[in-house]
Design goal:
Number of strands: 0
Radius of gyration: 18 Å
Shape: flat
Distance between the termini: 58 Å
Largest sheet: none
Strand content: under 5%
Length: 60
Amino acid sequence: MAEKAEKKFDCVRFMREARRRIYEETKHMSHEELSEYYRAFRESDPLWKRLKAREKEQAR
């Protein structure tokens, strides 16, 4: 049996850390604050910006 290659990126650890960070940032927020948090995140996301730009382009 071949030896396992060393991981360069641990996806499970990355997701757990991201979830933990988001939880810590949002655990005391009201529903309205949480909605604003996710809206602001979405609007700053590069993928979301490209999708919105494509949507505007297709609407022309």
